[in-house]
Design brief:
Order of helices and strands: EHHEHEEHEE
Largest sheet: 3 strands, antiparallel
Low-confidence stretches: 79-106
Distance between the termini: 104 Å
Number of strands: 6
Amino acid sequence: MASYEIAFAGQLVPGAQLELVKANLARLFQADAQRIALLFSGRRIVIKNNLDAAGAEKYRATLERAGAMVEVTAMPAVAETGGVAGAAETRPAQPSARVVEASAAGAPGRLKVLPRDEYMAAFAEVDAPDFGIAPLGDDLQDEKPEAQAPELDLAQFSLAPPGSDMGQAAADPAAAPPDTSHLKLQE
């Protein structure tokens, strides 16, 4: 049986007013203004998943009446073993997420991670390079060229012989201490 997810990226039905749509969604989801502002952040947010076709259509129609354009997409079929059907897993020992081979993900050298739960489903569409992990002991620092000394023309300078007077100003003599002989302490 196919399952669907409902995602929202902040798009409105043509002709809808933003403030009215925010109010409709706040009433529909019984959410505060902060959560509704998160929906309109521009990121794709999965509102509901694991719906059948009738339930997905009901959600889509209700949200369109509220003024929000949502995306209904079919979720990949999950096999009994927990992997994605038709895709080989490259790191099965990692419990937090499933990683699909680059050829199955579509672009070579790109990482495709399947979400482990509803929260992580919001990050499923992030396009990130597959950096991999370097073997133990590899030097990860890029090679840097040897530093070159700048070319300076110092012909205009000369050195004075040792012990010569460099024309430094003499220090002022220390001032005489104030006369305090006339001061007395009373008991």
